[in-house]
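Interim report to the steering committee. The following record documents the input for Triple QxxK/R motif-containing protein (120 residues).
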Amino acid sequence: MPGCNTRRRMNEKWKKEKQYMRKKKHKQAFWRSKMGRKDASTIKLPVDQYRKQIGKQDYKKTKPILRATKLKAEARKTAIGIKLALYLQQYWPSYWLSMLAFISDCQQMLTLIWNQTKIS
């Protein structure tokens, strides 16, 4: 089968990549342990540490603090809604007045043209 050779080559390639990553991880762990860390076996990826830290942030806060942050977020949302409502309240009538003026101008122009065509 022609596919077997390619599969075998791919498997060998993947094995080499895994071995390379293991060596690289070992070197990083060894280097980090020399940088004043107590135990090199507890080293995790920075992303994992970051996620763990984010997860712990909520546990550290007490209920009143969590409630206050929730209220702040809601206040921001309502402030945006109030601004939008005021904006619409101010500019919507002016938009309709300008449209009304435009339509009346068009109507006058059309009646003028219509009257001129009737005369001639």
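The helical segments are 2-34, 46-60, 63-119. The committee is asked to note this result when reviewing the revised timeline.
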